[in-house]
Amino acid sequence: xxxxxxETPLMKQYFDVKAKHPDAILLFRVxxxxxxxxxxxxxxxxxxxxxxxxxxxxxxxxxEMAGFPHHALDTYLPKLVRAGKRVAxxxxxxxxxxxxxxxxxxxxxxxxxxxxxxDNILNHxxxxxxxxxxxxxxxxxxxxxxxxxxxxxxxxxxxxxIDKLLNxxxxxxxxxxxxxxxxxxEIFGARFFVFELEDWAFTADAAxxxxxxxxxxxxxxxxxxxxxxxxxxxxxxxxxxxxxxxHKQIGHVTTLSRIExxxxxxxxxxTVRSLELAGTMNEGGTSLLDVIDKTVSPMGSRLLRRWxxxxxxxxxPIQERQDVVDHFFRYPETKDLLEEQVERIGDLERIxxxxxxxxxxxxxxxxxxxxxxxxxxxxxACLKSNEPSLCRIGERLNTCETIRDRIEREIxxxxxxxxxxxxxxxxxxxxxxxxxxxxxxxxxxxxxxxQQREIERTDISSLKIAFNxxxxxxxxxxNTHKDxxxxxxxxxxxxxxxxxxxxxxxxxxxxxxxxxxxKILALESNLFNELVLALAxxxxxxxxxxxxxxxxxxxxxxxxxxxxxxxxxxEVNESEVIDIQGGRHPVIEKQLLPGEPYIANDVCLDxxxxxxxxITGPNxxxxxxxxxQTALITLMAQIGCFVPAESAKIGVVDKIFTRVGASDxxxxxxxxxxxxxxxxxxxxxxxxxxxxxxxxELGRGTSTYDGISIAWAIVEYIxxxxxxxxxxxxxxxxxxxxxxxxxxKRIKNYNVSVKEVGNxxxxxxxxxxxxxxxxxGIHVARMAGMPKSIVKRSNEILKQLESENRQDxxxxxxxxxxxxxxxxxxxxxxxDDPILSQVRDEIKNTDVNNLTPLxxxxxxSEIKKIITGK
Length: 870
Fold this sequence. Notes:
Elements: H1 9-20, E1 25-30, E2 33-37, H2 38-48, E3 53-56, E4 62-69, H3 73-82, E5 87-92, E6 105-111, E7 130-135, E8 140-146, E9 151-157, H4 159-169, E10 173-177, H5 181-188, E11 194-197, H6 204-215, H7 229-244, E12 257-258, E13 266-267, H8 269-274, H9 288-292, H10 298-309, H11 315-330, H12 332-343, H13 348-356, H14 362-384, H15 388-396, H16 401-410, H17 431-441, H18 443-458, E14 464-468, E15 472-478, E16 490-494, E17 498-502, H19 504-536, H20 539-565, E18 571-573, E19 578-583, H21 588-591, E20 601-605, E21 612-616, H22 623-638, E22 647-651, E23 655-660, H23 672-684, E24 692-696, H24 704-720, E25 727-731, H25 740-743, E26 747-757, E27 760-769, H26 777-783, H27 788-808, H28 814-819, H29 834-844, H30 853-868
Parallel strand pairs: 1-5, 7-10, 9-12, 10-11, 13-23, 18-22, 21-25, 21-26, 23-24, 24-25
Antiparallel strand pairs: 1-2, 2-4, 3-4, 5-6, 7-8, 8-9, 14-15, 15-17, 16-17, 19-20, 19-22, 26-27
Helix pairs in contact: 6-7, 10-20, 11-12, 11-20, 12-14, 12-20, 13-20, 14-15, 14-16, 17-19, 26-27
């Protein structure tokens, strides 16, 4: 609605606020309701499922309106944010009782998908990151902030590296310069929720000033990020955005950490997706995270997700994690005690963040006390253990006894969720509060005592003290006892059969009791806020506690799954050998029916004798599963987890590349083959001798001969290039590649074995030495339920092709085969099926040119009867 037609003062105030936040849905507080107007009301009502109505807006004018009670904000706000909307919350800035004019209103918070501390919006298993990206000529800077936990991270690097980080952290919102919108979408796609800032928000000086001011330091050297110029600019843009969205209480953001690329195994987005590390490609699938996440705290759950996406390259920290898991095996009573206490802690990280922003509830403060109490036995158990890593955790854990005991003393054990409900502060903390409570909540007893005293004093047995909204408290005396009323009582009302009086004592009591509840709430609020202020001083210590508890939780989870799933400790070393004996796929083995064994396999790769394994074998035989399990076992070993194998020696890898199948990008104009080639070239340009590469069916998006040629050339490059001698598993249908073993000393042929029994194929799923000469594709087609006539015809074509290949010594091009003999297009009339032959004869013997319409219908009916048998 145009602003010049607004006439009511309230709507004028609304449009003034809305003009400052045109891109957000404005929730406008009016009394006990949050209301939306105009286009916001239309959009908001549909998203949250409430009734759309209209509100008068001056004489003869109306505007669309939708609203909900203010206490239902936590129900409706998440729905708006999850729908990708920015929501401006406009509150009343003064008490309506204290003013006769229009109540002052202003935006107190702008909630966006990337900036929220609302529990109903957040997923406790995932971080809720806001990201900012700054483009430079050759590099990119990126920063991530989770305001709900206080984690603030930055990095800079190539477009590929930033793409990997974006996909691994998967921020809920990304900030970019307005002028770079098109560039961002061309490089990173359109799947992120993007918000544009003015270009001036991304300047080096402004960013540095903001960061120094926030951290109250003179330089950024202490954070180890001073050399990341583009990363600093992105980090500064995030702080600018927090200002814009009215998130100014961010005392829990205490450090800015560099994401150290050289510490972690490189996993590109294709590998993360095809290995299904943290999510699945198919709805209802199971990821590696689903299998190994047995954490019992939100901090552990979030940290384990990060560990999986950032495996370690350094042997020492990997072994330290393994040592702790080993310790839990040897001392199960320690493991059980720690698990029991960790489970009691709750989301310590997010609760302490709410303390910083002043949004913590009484119940959350009590949970904080429970958590700090649970840390005491955890600390003692860690210190008593003879495991150095656990001892270090024990030394760093802080039980914060002073504040913990203060919470215990001052807050009731079971307070209400909301401060304004009262009953938060314990007894005997504040004398005035105790007196007010005695008046407010023991009023009935006091009045009964007064009533009894006055009966005895006046000898009026029917005297009673009561209350109404007109007179307040009064004494009622029946007319028969009127003469006994003391002279100091003041008559207030005459009834037919009685008189009502008030006394000085009653009036004083009334003033006390009516103001008591309001005073109680004000006092409780002050006392609670003082406690929260004291708690804020413990933010750094409690954040450290939360991180340490998360680490412990992850290691406890590793111990639990190792025990439940029969995993072993792998040997992680500096060699360039991957030797897995009796390896199993951690996800697939959990999906087998009870009693069905998983067929384990051995895989050995090294740089000297067996650098590249070419695996042939039919579809459904388990080639893809074998490739994936090799990568997953290697990755699990490098996050410090035990692995599903009989034994495993893992020479640390620096990069894992997985191309298991190609995903079509036809929607953006790329064919399957183009996608394959882009992904393959990305691998070949980034290989190192410590890389692990898995190729599955490369080249199937083009003609057979092109595919074989490209696959051969790629394998040859990986074998021959001095800087690219990566350990490689190459699964293929191209049996011609088996010839490579003769010419290249570090290439070996293997196949996933099958057994033919009669006319059936049994998949043994066992990797054995030597190439396979048969793909059994037709058998698989039959198992899939393909019509028998097609299966039969396929066999005939296969035999003819094979015989001609034997004659020529090499496969003929399909055009030559098709022109030789009968022709090899799948011809309807060549199908050797008696029913189809009969249909063919009927059609051949029909003189179509001389059929009447009726005869044609009858003939069609006869043919239908032949086909259906009816």
